[in-house]
Design goal:
This protein is α/β, with parallel strands linked by helices. It has one domain: Trna Endonuclease, Chain: A, domain 1. The chain is built from seven helices and seven strands. A five-stranded mixed beta sheet has the order 3-4-5-6-7. Strands 1-2 form a two-stranded antiparallel ribbon. The longest helix is centred in the middle third of the chain and has 23 residues.
Length: 202
Amino acid sequence: MIREVPITERRNSRSRNSLYLIADHYLDFWYRYVDANRSLVTRGLEDRIWDRAIAPSLHHYVSRPAFERSYRQYLWRALEGGRLPLDLAFSEVGNWWKNGSIEIDAAAVDERGQVTLAGLCKWTESPVDVKEYAHLQRNLDAAQSAFPLADGPWLALFSRSGFTPALQSIAASQKPKRLLLIDPPELYFEASQDQPIPATHR
């Protein structure tokens, strides 16, 4: 088990705003779907488990926590590989939420506790569009009282299925550029490729 607290509260060891999660994805899947349906498994009714329990919720399950954790791990790998912009600095990576209504899927903070990057992860079959960018911005606006932002924070959209041309155009036209668009080819870059994120992903 691991305990997660909003990244801005990590220095508060007594924070009650916490979640307890199974760290190992295989064990998590087992307890969520297999162990809970053990009687059906022993009777050879795996198809029923798939149809009623797994298939309807699999996309949500993969999205959170597995997909979100992958992109938070990516931020560390990209930092170590020299793939992030030089002015994007952080010393911790995590997530943030408040009252179950406002959530930042990936957040990075610097040594002063200021948020230097805030990101949204989308496990969808369609490319991420401008509305998801607007959704991330609205969440930031709503969270400002408890979410200490650094000057000129970076925003990031992490997508399973790429991005629409309209969103790519917005990211490319920003001056200064403050929007990262990260998809699976970038997520799984080889460690030897120590170069900045390609321009099409910024």
